[in-house]
Amino acid sequence: MSVSETAEKINSMEVRGALRIAVEAARALEEELVNGASYDELVRAGDVLRDARPTAVSLPNSINYVLHLAESHKDNDPVVAKPMLLADISDFISKLEGSLDKIAEYGANLIEEGDVLLTICNSHTVTEIMKRAWADGKRFKVYACETRPRLQGHITVKDLQATGVDVTLIVDSAAYHTMIHKDVKKVFVGADTVYSNGDVINKIGTSQVALTAKHSGAEFIVCTSSIKFSPFSVHGEVVEIEERDASEVAELPGVKVFNPAFDITPKEHVNMIVTEDGVIPPEAAYQVLKDRFGWSLG
Ligand code: RI2
To answer: Would the N or C end of the chain have less CB density within 10 A of its end CB?
Structure first.
């Protein structure tokens, strides 16, 4: 897919999910390079992709890493440098995709026989964990919030159901009632951005679910590849919370609509974060950033 096509599909959410947009952006830059782009052209392509959606830091992280690789080869003989750079980008994409396997293994270990779980939105990371635990022979129930306004919960329900997982759809406002009356033990959510202080940005409604989890005594577990940790937050930068079109919420001419796509869950409501490097407390986010983003932090 070309850079403009990829940016358009990310913007329209035809390509969505924080990890997937990171992978597709790296692939678009890889294709640009295959088609003969210079370093400066790659930088411009990166700008186009970066502007596609504002909140998930996996997108700029992925683009910036590919450009960092390109920069390190920029002064070398292109005949030698280009295949090396392509190999490096391909290795980076494989590692991004491969991170899911380790997270699925560690996350599945956290699920116990007879558990009742709840999730919100559609996180591929979370569904991989649940499918792995089910394949391991554990039997548990999942309640999935529908996730207004775009109903990504429907994707979660169909995906889990197709692999036999016992999943039930609920409306978002039924989350607290379900936690109490169905004895939810653990909440698994994905992430779009993790700040250096351990706060987590995820789909709108996640912070309400975290509050109700805390109140009802359920564990709140964030599942994310390290590509979603924000090196910018180390320097005090916050991400823009995407606001999407009013028409996603309602077609009511003349009515004011506020449609934020994400919210921030404070680290105090997060019990643990499952990454490809292991299960960590939110307070360890800065360590992840130092280990994984040294190239960017300087
Ligand atoms: P994975 C999604 O955002 C959701 O917020 C989800 O929790 C997060 O990305 C992580 O997704 P959107 O693209 O990388 O639906 O775990 O706005 O698939």
So the answer is: C
